[in-house]
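Researcher: Final request for today, and then I'll write up notes for the group meeting. The sequence and the SMILES for zinc ion follow.
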Amino acid sequence: MIEKQAPKKPSSIEKVCHDSECAERISLLEPDQLNLFKTFTYCPYCAEELMLICQNCREQLNSFEYKYCPWCGSEFKDPEGK
Ligand SMILES: [Zn+2]
Ligand SMILES: [Zn+2]
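Model: Predicted protein-zinc ion complex:
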């Protein structure tokens, strides 16, 4: 049996820094801190503008408004859950 496409699983938009050192620090944040981090526009470690990526496929996005990932088709769940 050939699997055509993996079923779309919910993903979320992650914020990361272009700098790999910062990205490492960000990955070590507690979930609470990470939630706060998601509201940031600039990296608190190097002041660079943060980039948005799909948690599922790690591809870069250019809008927070997306409901679905243009790269893997995952639906973005509202992290606030409203
Ligand atoms: Zn940074
Ligand atoms: Zn994706």
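Model: The pocket of zinc ion (ligand 2) is lined by residues 11, 54, 56-57, 59, 69, 71-72, 74 (CB under 6 Å). Residues 69 and 75 are 6 Å apart (CA to CA).
Researcher: Thanks, that's everything.
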